[in-house]
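name: query_chain
kind: protein
chains: 1
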Amino acid sequence: MTDRLEAQFAFLNEADRLKSVLRATTLCDASRPENSGEHSWHLALYALVLADQAGPGVNIDRVIRMLLLHDLVEIDVGDVPIHSQNGTAHGSAETQAAEARAAERIFGLLPGDLRDDLRALWEEFEAAETPDAVFAKSLDRVQPVMQNLACGGGTWATYDVTFDQLESRVGVKIARGAPRLWDWVRCKVRPWFG
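structure:
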């Protein structure tokens, strides 16, 4: 019991470092950059509130679990904005390899059963093949869009994002997991780009 608790708290203490990872996206009021811990919490809330946008067979409890875990690798890798360098760094083989190493280290702090279960959820999110992961990924894409809208453009202005880039890098993933949500968001976003 003592060894198990030591391992669980070692993981939880390490996860606290996610609060120090700053993202490119600002808070809705544009007062400061959001941190990755706040982002993960906000996404879990998105899943809870927008559960009615999920497709058939989506288990919102699993989606929330994925969203709470999905960015833990940023403790080691940092935030890689989707629109940076025309999107080439985000999702690159180098970034994916660094994230896999980070997942090995961070989830490796846990007792074996938890390590395997939580790492499997993280991998499922990354693969985005199951209905739960596809919906979780769509929420991960829509949240920064809504924050950029709320703060007058945010990272779209910073990275000179065009509407076509937004649609191809973000919109397709939102539409895949929450098509009605993307239809609504797209109507909100389009006017911003003129």
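note: The longest strand covers residues 22-26.
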